[in-house]
Amino acid sequence: MSSRTQRRFSARPSGPFRSPRTHVAQAAAALAAGMGVGRFVYTPILPLMHTQAGLSSAAGANLATANYVGYLVGALLGIALPALVRSPAVLRGSLIVLTGSLVGMPATHSTTVWIVLRLLAGLSSALIFVVAVSSVLSHLRDHPAHLPGWAFGGVGAGIALSGLLVLVLRSVADWRAAWWASAGLAAVFAAVSWNLRPEGTPASGVSSATGPAHRPGPRTHRWFTALFAAYTLEGIGYIVAGTFLVAAIEQSSPGWAGSGAWVLVGLAAVPSSALWAWLGRRWSRPDLLCAALVIQAVGIALPALIGGVTAALVSALLFGATFLGVSTIALAAGTHLQFPRSVALLTAGYSVGQILGPLVVTPLLHHGYHQTLVLAALVVLAAAGAAAVLRIGFPHRLAVARSTVP
pLDDT above 70 covers what percent of the chain? Predict the structure, then answer.
């Protein structure tokens, strides 16, 4: 890192914030822009692109995969170059690129250009995510655990507001207007988060967010292996639902039901991270992880097995209440196990799973989306099976540093 950059960081005060809630609001806005809108608004817009822009099911899966590849690249950059995580310029530049990628989507009908734009959106959303999360975990570590949880709720707020925007626009405008309006919403969130204070330069001797660098015990590896398998499988199953849930619901329900269900996903996700963190004080993480995965699998399968508006809304509620919670629990469990670079490894497995998900289900898309959701639910159930293995003899009493929402 250059001396100029070091001076800029050292000039920033290192004491506690006068208003932690303001910091939470700024971080939540960044996550709402980067994840809730930039990453997930594609889900409610996808059916409109099928019917109005001539996008095929296979091409839709390719656009989703491009976004997840970009996200993986951005996450790896954040791991390999820690200075990026502490840079306000990276945050602001990523917000600008993200908004520009949304603006560019309706400006063309080229699938190749769309793939590039979604790749850029994934890359920028990952950088926004790592900057915002590192900021929250760094500056709010001495505050109540529910505060970081509400910051992560910004993802749900972005999903809900962008989904509501698409729901309103679909009856009065076309797919292009949906993308432009989403870009405007992302710009609003970007303005709110513009002055978010990134993580400061770490002092010597301070452990990283991946937990203490102690050598794991000889039996830690088997629990971490089960956790890694569960979280990677969750990446595959959850992203299939997160990409195609709206399109699947609209195959058997009124047109408003899909977008309406997606709004409900966002609303359920807003308090979910704080809620699961609170439950973690009363129940073991393996039990919670297994329960959350089973609940999520039921939610994913409902629209395919039952159909109708009621099943769609229940599905949205269950999915929204669990997908952030699973991440909260799994990453906290990895930190508890004191496995070296557990958060980085789990995030990498999760990201690879997200890339594989759309590719695995592409052959099924020719028959509609219901078979796709059934397969996704089975994958999540397999993840629950791996989490059940994690419960066997789990070392609950390992001495660890104070943990927060990952």
Answer: 84
